[in-house]
């Protein structure tokens, strides 16, 4: 089903409201707390999600909401707005403007629209099923990648992978670096890396342990820019995905990236499922 312009407009307004809530806190008094899962949360996270929820409660009262800070509100439409007010809270707390607000619309378990908004630099990617991804209103395109060796690989942190995942990530690092340590991954970035991939500045992003609110917005943006987004078995991302995520700018490299990821010796093998091209 094509995305309605009204939903795109609403997503923009949600991102605007979150940005207005976040900017006054950036490099200021953060009021940081550590949550039960040891991740930081700030007053800005909570203010931004509350601002978005107020708009949704007024304008889309029948839709469900799944937010990182305030949990799940059930809906009756089969549609869920998935919100991460600050993806990259650690970057935010140290004054790095590479965090982002994520807004996604999920219909019957499938992410169909997503926004990555960087409110300090005022950069915004928006992607929707059947539409080209836009970056600040102009089309965003992933770049061609002739071979896996030499591809630019990014991940937020090597420490975010669990013990089973580390060998697979390192196998992918070996494939892109060709044994040259200087060609190692780009670290840091959270959701911002996926925007950079959509705009043709990175080739591969690989992460584990993501929640739905971390990845739902990313898939429509990457796919609408010509890339592919999948799990580590090559299957499309849905609300049921485990959180092992790959973004590949050039779909022609998808098989090689998956093979490299599964070339690991030792560690748990995640299998190599079938995937679409």
In total, how many domains does the architecture comprise?
2
Number of helices: 8
Q: End-to-end span in angstroms?
A: 20 Å
Radius of gyration: 18 Å
Helix content: 25-40%
The CATH H-level superfamily of the largest domain is: Fructose-1,6-Bisphosphatase, subunit A, domain 1
Stretches with pLDDT under 50, minimum 5 residues: 266-277
Largest sheet composition: 8 strands, mixed
The chain-level mean pLDDT equals: 91
* Proportion in β-strands: 15-25%
SSE-based structural type: alpha+beta
Structural summary, described in words:
The protein folds into two domains: 5-139, Fructose-1,6-Bisphosphatase, subunit A, domain 1 (Fructose-1,6-Bisphosphatase, Chain A, domain 1), CATH 3.30.540.10; 153-265, D-Maltodextrin-Binding Protein, domain 2 (3-Layer(aba) Sandwich). Helix content is 28%, strand content 24%. The longest helix is centred in the N-terminal third of the chain and has 18 residues, at 5-22. It has 277 residues and is an alpha+beta fold. It is built from eight helices and 15 strands. The model is unreliable at 266-277 (pLDDT under 50). The radius of gyration is 18 Å and the shape is globular. The protein has an eight-stranded mixed beta sheet with strand order 4-3-5-6-7-8-9-10, sandwiched between helices.
